[in-house]
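This protein record is not my work; I was only asked to verify it. The record follows directly below this note.
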Amino acid sequence: MDELGDETAFFYLDSKGLYKPFKLNRFGIIKSKILRYFQFRVEDLYNCPSDRQLVKDNVYQKYVQVDFQNERKRAEEANRKAEAERKKLRLNMKKSVKNGKGNTST
């Protein structure tokens, strides 16, 4: 890999033991023929996106910081459930006040 990308090349070993050049797909991505989900955008080798950017990028989501992504999804789901519960409680409180059940002063 060179700084300008002029001499950068990627190869794979074919079934005959010969090195063949990888062909980029129309999005500039190289996909592994051996490692499931492993793929990368050649320009990202030069752009060096942050971990946060990689996690949000469909090209890398299947194998970059998977544990972190799973934990984030669990946290987001817990937040959604908590917000739904808060809305439900607010609605019940409004109904109670409207029906006169929320007034405890005598």
